Amino acid sequence: MTPGSDPERDDTGLPPVDIEIPDDARELDRDVQAYHREQRAVRRNQRSRRLHGLLSRDSMVVPLLICCLVFALISGTLLTLFTATSIDQGMPGPGAAGPQPAPVMTPAPRLASDAVIVSGRQRQLRSLGPAVLLMVPANCSCAAQATEIASLAQSGGVLHYLLYTGSGSAQARRLALELGHGTVPARDVTGDLDKGYTGLTAFVVTAQGSVSYSQRLDTSQHLSELLQLGDV
User: Residues 203, 110: one domain?
Assistant: First the structure.
């Protein structure tokens, strides 16, 4: 086309166009900005199509992965909770005591012929069985243990005596009343039952007349084992 819009002969075969070249290039800024906006819109559309295609192709995989993640989190939380609870239950609490040991019983056949005076009558130890005789040393602070043994003996139908020597009958009667449970004072005639023993000592006489003893008794021991070990 000629500047005057008059058609001239064109041998290229291209359609005729009207091109206007501005005098100032700044007049093309709006066209350049519109072109960039179109290109950005095209790129956004391409990204949206790719993301939509990915989700459409893996529509079952993504929810499955999410479910697995949630299940793993729940399982880990429950496992931690149960493990902590089991540890807490397995550990002894503050002040909790372990298994109580049984008193150590020592056979003493030589004591079977020793004599005691019970209610004004002299008798040998072997004839008292089944019975438990307690020797409570002075100032031993073991009244609680002696009371427990007296209670166990009474519950098992076993006679129980409080041994004393010399002229301590009044003190023995007073202590027997404090122990209760039918405890009877018994005087050691020979004094052999008060020699070489430490702490609260229990002399156990079986129905067959055998004698054994256990000394240094305290509340940390399973005192009910006294009657079982003594075969009362």
Answer: yes
In a domain, residue 11? The reply is no
Structural contact between residues 163 and 193, judged by C-beta atoms closer than 8 angstroms: yes
β-bridge pairing 159-164 and 131-135? parallel
User: Cα–Cα distance between 132 and 153 in angstroms, integer?
Assistant: 7
How far the first Cα of the chain sits from its last, in Å, is 136
127 in a domain, yes or no? yes
Which structural domain range is residue 201 located in? Answer: 106-229
CA distances from 88 to 75, 79, 80, 85, 198 (A): 20, 14, 12, 5, 40
> How would you classify the pairing of strands 115-118 and 211-214?
unpaired
Identify whether residues 79 and 114 lie together within a single domain.
no
The whole-number pLDDT of residue 87 equals 61
Q: Is residue 59 part of a domain?
A: yes
- 111 and 225 in a single domain? The answer is yes
Q: For tokens 């609490």, name the residue.
A: 93
Q: Cα–Cα distance between 206 and 94 in angstroms, integer?
A: 40
Q: Each residue of 43-77: pLDDT tens digit?
A: 888 888 777 766 665 556 667 777 888 888 888 88
Query: For every residue of 98-128, which 3-state class applies, written as one string?
Result: CCCCCCCCEECHHHHHCEEEECCEEEEHHHC
Choose one of 41, 58, 90: the last residue of a domain. Answer: 90
